Structure formats: structure tokens, C-alpha cells
């Protein structure tokens, strides 16, 4: 498990002292996005997945805190106005540092969240297609056996010269094996298509989750 990143709190603490009655406001689309990620922890039955899901929830909280810190730091700078008067420069420098730290934390937490989401996605796909992949293995093993059987029966033909009835029996067995191979090939295509369909479904489900960087960070300010 990666080391948990902590979001800085300097800007939020300053905001709390100056604007104690004001509630922090993040963009509604960002709030909705993070809520959807949190609520859509997929139902993974594997017990080993639970630590990963817990980690995902914790990282979503930290991402929100980091984005909140960045939003407040940028808001404080905008509200501060022109750093013209003597002494204002130092305050401006401090607030700028708060913003830089918050942006760095946001970047780090987003990267970590994306990595965890990718892990959850891979685990979900693995669990979802496990039965189908096992069916493929069984069919492929049977396919090999029948193909080897056809080859062996073909060799036996050399010893059945002028044995019409026996040759017919051998040929009928080869025909049945080939028919079974055709059926196996069709079943394999159906299962492979099913696997690809499930993978596509999961990829689409997680696609929006991995688009957290779509938000223009420079627009994260409070009214």
C-alpha cells in the first residue's frame, strides 16, 4: 500500500480565521464527480480486494481536501487584491506558497487515486471474466485432444489398406471430431466476445473516474 499523502491545511486554517462564517464551496461538477467515485465502489467479492477499496475511499477524501485547499488558497489571493502596499508582498508570497503546495498535493493525490482506480478496475475485470476464461481453457484443452486424435487416426489409415469397414469407422470418428472442433471454435468466439464485452463495459464504467484531471484547476475559486 502506497504512503498516504496528506493535503496541506494552511490556506483552510487561514480562511477559517478570516471568514469563519463562510462555507467552503467547490465546483458542483467536481463534487458530483468525487461523490460518484466514492459511491460506485464496485461489488468485488474477493476478500483480498477490501484493503484496496478502503484505500480508494481514503484517497478520494484526500483528493477532495487537496482540491479544497487549492480552491481556498487561490480565492484568498484573489480577494487579497493588488500586493502594492509595503508589507503586502510578504503576505502575497505566503499565500502563493500555500497555493503552490496545494497544487502539488492535488497532483500527487490525483495520480495516486488514478493508480488505485486502475488496480480496482483490473481486479474487477479479472473477477468478472474468470468463469469465461476457465471455460476457454477447458475448450482449448479439448480442442488439442481432438486435433491430436485426428492426427493419430490419420496415421492408422496406413495400416488399414483394403479394410473398408474399418476405414469407414475411422473416417466417421474423424468427421465427428472435426464437427466437434467446429463447434468448439464457435463456442470460443462467443466466449471471447463475451469477455471483450465485459471488459468494454468495465472500461466505460471507470472511464469517467480516470478523467479527474479534466477540471481546469485555475478555475477552482470561490465566489
Description of the molecule:
The model has no long low-confidence stretch (mean pLDDT about 85). The protein is rod-shaped. It is built from 6 helices and no strands. It has about 220 residues and is an all-alpha fold. It has 2 domains: about 130 residues, no CATH class; about 70 residues. The protein is about 75% helix and about 0% strand. It starts with 9 loop residues before the first helix and ends in a 16-residue tail after the last helix. Helix 1 packs across helix 3, helix 2 runs antiparallel to helix 3 and helix 4 packs antiparallel against helix 6. The longest helix has about 45 residues.
Outline of the structure:
This protein has 223 residues and is an all-alpha fold. It is built from six helices and no strands.
| N-to-C CA distance | 38 Å
Provide the number of structural domains.
2
Secondary structure category: mainly alpha
Helical residues, percent? over 70%
Please tell me what the overall shape is: rod-shaped
Rg from alpha-carbon coordinates: 31 Å
The main β sheet shows up as:
none
> What is the number of strand segments?
0
Q: From N to C, what is the helix and strand string?
A: HHHHHH
**Mean pLDDT figure:** 85
Unreliable stretches, pLDDT < 50, 5 or more residues? none
Number of helices: 6
Q: Kindly estimate the percentage of residues that lie in beta strands according to DSSP.
A: under 5%
